[in-house]
Recover the amino acids of this structure.
């Protein structure tokens, strides 16, 4: 949890140190790396992956978003050793497909929300409903290009249960 808070402080610090150029709503495509930690206390899982996100402006400070990616949920520590010992898989994949909106508060900061599906790549796996509110910052680095950092809580629910994680997305965005 301390690492997540430190990451959030670093993103905020970068926002204040960056130029005051307003990002606003512009059409762009971003490619990013994803990292996450489950919110369950005794979960020995690490989440890593990548994603693509498209943003389409609909108002001065508002973009509609569509995103797709791949996340690998990997057992770590004692859990990994136990799963290996019984011949079970130590990781599995999920393909999140989401759509939503991103609102720029002014300056470089935004709030976003997406809804969609988290599709298991495992045989017999299920598709879960996904909800992902995000706070982030976007910094211009060149003409029509920017770095985007988003911190989110993502929840997957279905089949009578739910699970969630805190995720960080670090992306490079290309203006279209």
């Amino acid at each position: 949890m301390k690492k997540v808070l430190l990451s959030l402080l670093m993103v905020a610090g970068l926002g204040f140190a960056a130029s005051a150029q307003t990002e606003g709503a512009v059409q762009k495509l971003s490619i990013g790396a994803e990292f996450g930690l489950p919110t369950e206390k005794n979960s020995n899982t690490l989440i890593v992956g990548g994603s693509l996100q498209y943003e389409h402006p609909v108002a001065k400070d508002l973009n509609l978003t569509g995103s797709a990616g791949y996340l690998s949920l990997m057992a770590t520590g004692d859990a990994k050793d136990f799963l290996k010992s019984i011949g079970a898989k130590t990781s599995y994949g999920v393909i999140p497909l989401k759509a939503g909106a991103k609102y720029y508060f002014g300056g470089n900061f935004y709030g976003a929300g997406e809804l969609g599906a988290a599709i298991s790549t495992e045989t017999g796996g299920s598709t879960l409903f996904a909800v992902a509110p995000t706070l982030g910052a976007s910094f211009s680095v060149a003409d029509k290009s920017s770095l985007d950092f988003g911190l989110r809580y993502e929840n997957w629910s279905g089949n009578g249960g739910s699970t969630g994680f805190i995720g960080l997305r670090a992306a490079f965005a290309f203006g279209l």
Remarks:
- The longest strand covers residues 91-106.
- Residues 2-17 form the longest helix (16 residues).
- The helical segments are 2-17, 77-85.
